[in-house]
Known about the structure:
Helices cover 15% and strands 30% of the residues. It has helices at residues 2-18, 29-35; strands at 84-94, 99-105, 110-115, 125-129, 134-139, 144-151, 155-158. Strands 5-6-3-2-1-4-7 form a 7-stranded mixed sheet, with no helix packed on it. Strand 5 and strand 6 (144-151) form a beta hairpin.
Amino acid sequence: MKATIVTLMIAALALAGCQDKPKTEAPTNQQTAAALPAGHPPVGGMPPAAEGKPGMPKDAAHAGAQADPHAGLKPMSVPQGVPSKTGKVLEVLDGGQYIYLQVQHDDGKKIWVAALPMKVAKGDKVKYADAPALPNFPSKALNRTFDQLVLTQAVEVVK
């Protein structure tokens, strides 16, 4: 009997607790805008720049998907202490944003290396910062897939 009364009381309290909950809604931009400090831009994005006023800069970070993500980057020489490899350039392919070099190491192994555009010619000896080769790397610009490709920014022609 006590167990039944206790169970009924718990059920009654649970039902009473589920009723009359305050109604909540997700805030809209208008509701949140009232709580923002004066001068704060509207929630949901920046308004377009006023006529004659400068907008966002038109650099790689702000120009969208069509922009060159490598704008402003330049090839660099291999930094001191960075693992590197050297070899003879067998082939040079221009891929627009990258150049692709087929390099043959002294041990005879051949590898493709992609780097930022630079002056290099077939027969040159190059040194590049070593990195793990990416397998089956597709180049849309060349419409080709490389079996193994090392991506690096640090390549230098060695005399």
